[in-house]
Prior knowledge:
The chain contains 1 helix and 10 strands, in the order H-E-E-E-E-E-E-E-E-E-E. It is mainly β. Residues 1-25 have low confidence and may be disordered.
Amino acid sequence: xxxxxxxxxxxxxxxxxxxxxxxxxxxxxxxxxxxxxxxxxxxxxxxxxxxxxxxxxxxxxxxxxxxxxxxxxxxxxxxxxxxxxxxxxxxxxxxxxxxxxxxxxxxxxxxxxxxxxxxxxxxxxxxxxxxxxxxxxxxxxxxxxxxxxxxxxxxxxxxxxxx
Length: 163
């Protein structure tokens, strides 16, 4: 094998590995701080939360960190936080919101699926997706009420001055 052949093989190897390296370093557009547009909630204004803030971060070793802070209609503050693997393995959540176990998967960089459990009872499954321009996060929540399935959609805006 000549030096020219070796150089060509090295160049081909570099080209083959380039997209993989580029994809691995690309952060999810979900990462950042988000604020709920409470007017998008399908409930009477008097029972809507005053504020909901959501933060997504890439955690260590491929894990995903989520933090939510809620100020309910009466002004009470609730919060929850978790850091879990994105392979669907359940992990602990902490805080005062009604969730103590979370599982998550990210089928694509702009979509996150999370399942929530509280005291051994399934609470909801939520799908988060980001608009093409990265400015709007759509949350689709599925749960059961009185034995019937319910789907609720809400829209978050990227927090001003935050990535």
